[in-house]
C-alpha cells in the first residue's frame, strides 16, 4: 500500500482534479496511474512533477517513442519495478514493437556491462574525448 | 593508469590485432579507444565483448543513433565518466544534435527523479500494468 | 522467505537473545524486526551491526528524526523496499509528519535528477568547491 | 570540459540572465555554479530545473539545513563527485558543523550497508510495516 | 508476468531448443530458469548471452564457487531480487555453506558502507595506488 | 582534497594513533591509507569502522583473497574509483594474478548485464528459488 494512500478522482480537491484532468486529456486516456494518485498527497509536488513530465515528454528534437524508450532504459538500470512496468506499457502504446523492445534490452544490458568493465579496468578517458564537442 | 596498462596496436598479438582491425573497419576510424586497449589484456574477453557490442549496436529495429542515445542514458544513470564521454562522442558522430542531447538529458534526469518518487511513496503497480503485453 | 530463515526469540541462543533484549530495550518495543531475525544466523554480524546502528542512530549532533529521514533518503535512492518500509515507519515514530515526508521525497527526487544532469553534462567542479572547507 | 561548454553571464541571453539573477538573489551570492552555466545551453531546462529547486529547497516542514544534508546523503549514495562537493559546501553555509557532517556520513554509510544486508538475506517485509501508516 | 511471456521447451523453435539443451547439459539439470525462457523471445540475444555466461562461468583462474559468490555480490549491490535468488541457489549448489554465505554478506555490506564513506569524505586516491600494478 | 582534511600520524590524538598502530600491525605495513586519515576526523567512526573491517576481512569460511575480490566486485559495481584502486591493490597483495583479475572483471560485467536483462524483461522468480534453502 502506498505510504500515504492513493487519492481517487472523486475525493480529490479541485487543485488535484485539475491536474488529473490535464493528465487524462494530454494522454488521451480515462484513467490515472497510481503514481499520480500517490503523489497527490502533496498537491504542489503533483503539479510541479506533472508540468515537468508534460514539458519533457512532449515531441521535440526527439520523438515520444524514443523518449519513452530512454525512460525505460533508465528505469531498467535503476531496477525500478513500477517504472519498468508503467513505461514499458507507455512505450508500447507509443509504437514500440517486440523487436524494438528486445533490442532496447540488449543495449541496456551491454551498457551496464561495459560501464563496469571500464571502471574495473580503471580506464582513463581518451584525450580525444576530453576536448569537448 | 589502467590497472593492467594499455596494449597498443604495434605490441598487440595477432589475435588482438584482428579485433582491433575489425573495430576500426566497422567504425570507419583509424584509432582504438582506451577501453579496448585495456580489455586487450584478456584477449578472450576482448573478442567476446567486441562481438557482442558489434552485434547489438548494428542497425536493426532501432537505428544506431537511438542505440547510442540509450547507451548514454544508461551511462549517465550509472554516472560512469568514461562511458558518458565516449558514448556522447559516438552519439554525436551518429547525428545527435545539441537539441537532441539536451532533451535526452531532460528525460534521463526526470526518469531518475520519478524512479525515486515511486519507490519512496511505495506505489504499487497498477493492475493494468501487471497484465503483461 | 529469508535465505537462511528467521530466528525467533524462543529458539535463539543466549548470545542472540542478549542482542534482541538490547534492541527491544533501546527502542522501547516488544518486537524484533525480520531484519535482525535474519541476521541472527550470524551472531557475530548481528552483534556488530546492532552495536554500530545503536551507536550511529543515538542522539548526537543530529537528532534521531533527522537521522531516520537521512536513512529513508538513502534507502529510497537505493530503492530498497524493505528499508524504505521499515525506516519510514521509524521516522514516523520519531515524529515525521506527512508534510515532512512529502518534502523529504521532493528533495530526494530532485537530488537524483540533478545528480544525473551534472554527470550527463560532464560539469567540472567549480574551483571554489575544490578548496576544501 | 562540460559537454556543451559553460555560458557565462556576459554572453547569456536575457532569458538565461533572468534565471541567473534570480539564483544570485535567492542564494545571496554573486556567483553562478558551473551546473547552471552548463544547463543554460537549454534555457527551458534551466528555468524549469531552477524553479523546481527553488520551490523544493525553500523552508517548509523541513528547514534548509536538513534539506541540504538530505541532498548530500543522496549524492553520496549515488557517488556523484560534483554534487557531493557543491552540496557539502551548501550544507556548511546553511550551518552544518563538522560534527554534523561526520554523523551524516555515519548514517549514510550504515544505511548503504544494511540496505544490502536486507537484500542479500532476502528479508521479507514485516507485516506491521505493510499496514500503511 | 514477464513482459513478453516465457517460452517453454515444447513450444520453442529448434534454435532456442538447441540453447536450452546446452544449458541443461552444461548445468546437469533438467530445468530451464525463467530468465532464459524470457530471453528466448530474442533468440539471438539468448544464444549470445548464454555463450557469454557459459564462457565466463567455466572453471579458469577462479573456481566456479568463487565466481558464483562474486555474482551474488554484484546482484546484492544492485539489489536485483531475481538475481540474488537464482545465484544464491547456484552458489549453494556449487558448495557455498551457510558460514560462507554470511561472510559473503558481511563483506558486501561493509564494502557498500565504505564505498560511500570514501565518496562522502571526498578522499583522494593515495599516490601509491595510482602507480598502476 | 578530503572534506575535512587528512590527519597524519604525527598530529593524531592517542585514540587515533592506537587505531593507526593496529591497522599497520594487522596489515603488516608502515603506511596508513588516505581513507583512514580522512575518517580520523571522527575518532569514534574510525574505531568502529576499523574494528568492523578487521573482523570481517579476517580469515574465516572465506579466505582473505576471496574477500578482497568480493570487495573489488562491489566497488566496481558502485563505480567507486578510490575503492577500486585501493582494493585492487589489496587483492594483488593477497595473491590475485592478472588472470584472476580479468576473470573477476568478466563476471562482474556479465552480472551487471544480466541483472538489468532480468529487470527489463520483468522475469518472475522461479518457484524453485522461492523455497528457501
Offer a few descriptive terms.
elongated, homohexamer, mainly alpha, 133 residues, 7 helices
Cα-based radius of gyration of chain A, to the nearest Å: 19 Å
* Integer average pLDDT of chain A: 96
> Please, how many helices of chain A?
7
Which chain pair shows the most residues in contact? Answer: A-B, 69 and 69 residues
Sequence stretches where pLDDT stays below 50 over 5 or more residues of chain A: none
Major sheet details of chain A: none
Indicate the proportion of strand residues of chain A. Answer: under 5%
Structural class of chain A: mainly alpha
Number of strands of chain A: 0
The oligomeric state of the chains shown is: homohexamer
Order of helices and strands of chain A: HHHHHHH
Tell me, what's the shape of chain A? elongated
Q: Termini distance of chain A?
A: 47 Å
**Share of helix of chain A, binned:** 55-70%
Q: Care to describe what's here?
A:
The structure is a homohexamer of 133-residue chains. The first copy, chain A, has helices at residues 14-27, 34-39, 43-57, 64-78, 81-93, 98-120, 127-130. The termini of chain A are far apart. The longest helix of chain A is centred in the last third of the chain and has 23 residues, at 98-120. Chain A is mainly α and 133 residues long. Chain A has seven helices and no strands. Chains A and B meet through helix 2, helix 3, helix 4, helix 5 and helix 6 of A and helix 2, helix 3, helix 4, helix 5 and helix 6 of B.
Amino acid at each position: 500500500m502506498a505510504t500515504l494512500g492513493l487519492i481517487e478522482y472523486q475525493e480529490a480537491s479541485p487543485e488535484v482534479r485539475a491536474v488529473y484532468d490535464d493528465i487524462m486529456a494530454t494522454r488521451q486516456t480515462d484513467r490515472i496511474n497510481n503514481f499520480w494518485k500517490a503523489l497527490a498527497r502533496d498537491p504542489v509536488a503533483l503539479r510541479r512533477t506533472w508540468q515537468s513530465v508534460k514539458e519533457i515528454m512532449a515531441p521535440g528534437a526527439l520523438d515520444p517513442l524514443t523518449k519513452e524508450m530512454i525512460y525505460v532504459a533508465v528505469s531498467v538500470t535503476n531496477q525500478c519495478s513500477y517504472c519498468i512496468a508503467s513505461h514499458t506499457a507507455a512505450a508500447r502504446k507509443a509504437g514500440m514493437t517486440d523487436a524494438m523492445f528486445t533490442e532496447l534490452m540488449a543495449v541496456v544490458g551491454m551498457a551496464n556491462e561495459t560501464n563496469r568493465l571500464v571502471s574495473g579496468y580503471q580506464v582513463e578517458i581518451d584525450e580525444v574525448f576530453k576536448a569537448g564537442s
